[in-house]
Amino acid sequence: MKQRIFEIIEPANNDDKASLLFDRIIVIMILINVLAIILESFESLSLSYGSTFRIIEVISVAVFTVEYVLRIWTAPLKYKSISKTKSVYRQIKSPMAIIDLLAILPFYLPMFIPIDLRFLRIIRLTRMFRLFKLNRYNQSLNMLSRVIQREKEHLQVTLFVTFLLLLIASTLMYTFENHVQPEAFSNIVETFWWAIATLTTVGYGDVYPITAIGKVLSGIIALLGIGVVALPTGILSSGFLQELNDRKVSESDKCTCPHCGKTF
Length: 264
Known about the structure:
The structure is a single chain. This protein is mainly α. The protein has 2 domains: about 1-135, Voltage-gated potassium channels. Chain C (Four Helix Bundle (Hemerythrin (Met), subunit A), Up-down Bundle); about 150-250, Helix Hairpins (Orthogonal Bundle). Helices cover about 75% and strands about 0% of the residues. The protein is built from 12 helices and no strands. Helix 4 (about 50-75) packs across helix 7, helix 9 (about 140-150) packs across helix 12 and helix 10 (about 150-175) crosses helix 11 (about 190-200). The two termini are about 30 Å apart.
């Protein structure tokens, strides 16, 4: 029984109808939840259909909770090379299990901890994490996860360089502009907003330098931003191309039996 439950709750093979049905039910419930969260943000709909949204929430949390418990229960079948305790621990700390937990946590948290209504509203927004549960069933999202995992070191270097550039730009701009615009560039942390808007070449115009050297620095940062912002895009594009090439090689290695039609 445990083995069969494990087969059902894992992403399905085309031959397993029960597993396919389970996958479709979970995907449909995720999409219904996301739609309900969006519609609930309209005050008129929230007042008129609040009980309906509540029923959807209770049923969804019940299903997602059972799914979460079953995945932990069947973890030893997924990680057969390690002990039962370690397999459960590995399952609990896996990224998808954390997403599963965050998807149901906002429902249970107020039952055990008194929470301010303003904070409760923020907590309830984490229900949108249910959307990330689609990653388990969607090939495109799986590919994106693999690409990010493969290129994470390059992305980390890019993010670190970007942070350094933001920090240097904010420090210099604070030094040059604080004495003439103390309200706009009151400290280095406040100046980060200008640096981010300039480096990403958005330029909202709410905060800008008025000194000559400040304008020169702003221009340099804007030009550097064109290259810095493009770096993660290039890294991810390269990763996607490599992933597509690997998939083509993998598919070319597959053979189809002329008698039964199965691919192996």
